[in-house]
Amino acid sequence: MTRFSPSYDWTAGAMISTVDDLARFHRALFTGKLLRPAQQRELLTTVQFPEAPAYGLGVQRMDVPCGSEPGAEEIDAWETDGAGPGFTSVSLTTADGGRQLVLAANVYDLSADLRDERPVPQSEDWGRHRPQP
């Protein structure tokens, strides 16, 4: 993108951060350091859908394999993501905040999204754990 104002997406386009900022925020959010106990329970209450991660209040809970061999242990992780023209981000954090993956990329094909096609490159392994559009 050469010229674009993210303000089209209201406050979602107003946040500027780094992967370190996102990791620190998610560690605090998912380990209960930001919300009161009742609010934390609401955040972590999800609805399970067939063939998709459990979803609730803008977060998803998913089991992520810890290793590539068959029968590898799975760990419970919380995920958030976001995207807009020219960027995408995803963050996974374990409930104890001990393991995280935060990815930010400047890859997002708005024209593909408008055609109801996948707007970001697809990883074969990642697709096993996420719903397909």
The number of E-state strands comes to 5
Radius of gyration: 16 Å
| Major sheet details | 5 strands, antiparallel
Mean pLDDT: 80
Low-pLDDT residue intervals, each spanning 5 or more residues: 129-133
Q: In total, how many domains does the architecture comprise? A: 1
Helices, by number, come to 4
* Order of secondary-structure elements: HHEEEEEHH
Helix percentage: 10-25%
* Distance N to C terminus: 24 Å
Structure description:
By secondary structure, the protein is of the alpha+beta class. The protein is 21% helix and 26% strand. The chain has one domain (15-127). Strands 1-2-3-4-5 form a 5-stranded antiparallel beta sheet, with helices on one face. The chain is globular and about 40 Å long.
